[in-house]
């Protein structure tokens, strides 16, 4: 990994889930179980997040209704689209610790951008719920809007081109190792966020 130091970056690029916004999928499971009248454990046993339908939903290739239909079939619960949506949006568990202080501080020194694998219902929800926090980003690159998702090379190339900053001058923060590796393979400086301290520590090394 390229060492971080003052002057080593011209822009910061943040994943959203578990870097800026806290995510708790157990909240979705609990909500769906409540509507279905079953134990959460029975849904956990059947719930696989990264399915083909999940990936297609994240790049805007299938509708919310089609994705919820796939969940209805795989989980074996007959709840409505509205009930699925309620649980789907319940995963947002607030801001990550310290991020509300770190983002405005960083934004005073260089432009901030976000790049997230996400879907239309989540975008609608977090744009309203966390609008003030997300306002620190100059641009949000969202998989469901750009039709590309991490860790694909094409996705990182698209975002770098849109930012107009050399890849080697962009520091990218993500909680998933495969996304960090994907970014590094395209020339970005990758920071693997495994705890809330990691963002603050990296910013300190950058002199922020």
TrEMBL record:
Q: Which Gene3D superfamilies match?
A: HAD superfamily/HAD-like (3.40.50.1000), Putative phosphatase, domain 2 (1.10.150.240)
Q: Keyword Oxidoreductase: yes or no?
A: no
Q: Which GO terms describe its molecular function?
A: hydrolase activity
InterPro entries according to UniProt: HAD-like_sf (IPR036412), HAD-SF_hydro_IA (IPR006439), HAD_sf (IPR023214), PGP-like_dom2 (IPR023198)
Q: Which UniProt keywords apply?
A: Hydrolase
Which PANTHER family does the UniProt entry name for this protein? ALPHA-D-GLUCOSE 1-PHOSPHATE PHOSPHATASE, FLAVIN MONONUCLEOTIDE HYDROLASE 1, CHLOROPLATIC
Q: What is this protein called?
A: Putative hydrolase of the HAD superfamily
């Amino acid at each position: 990994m390229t060492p971080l130091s003052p002057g080593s970056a011209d822009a910061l690029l943040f994943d959203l889930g578990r870097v800026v916004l806290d995510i708790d999928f157990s909240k979705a499971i609990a909500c769906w179980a409540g509507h279905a009248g079953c134990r959460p454990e029975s849904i956990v046993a059947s719930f696989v997040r990264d399915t083909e339908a999940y990936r297609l939903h994240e790049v805007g290739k299938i509708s919310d209704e089609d994705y919820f239909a796939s969940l209805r079939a795989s989980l074996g619960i007959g709840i409505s689209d509205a009930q699925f949506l309620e649980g789907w949006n319940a995963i947002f568990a607030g801001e990550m610790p310290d991020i509300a202080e770190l983002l405005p501080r960083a934004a005073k020194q260089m432009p901030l951008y976000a790049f997230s694998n996400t879907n239309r219902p989540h975008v609608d929800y977090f744009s309203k719920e966390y609008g003030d926090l997300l306002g620190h980003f100059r641009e949000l690159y969202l998989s469901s809007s750009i039709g590309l998702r991490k860790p694909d090379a094409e996705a990182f190339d698209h975002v770098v081109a849109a930012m107009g900053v050399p890849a080697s001058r962009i520091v990218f923060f993500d909680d998933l190792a495969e996304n960090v590796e994907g970014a590094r393979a395209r020339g970005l400086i990758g920071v693997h966020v495994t705890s809330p301290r990691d963002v603050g520590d990296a910013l300190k090394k950058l002199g922020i």
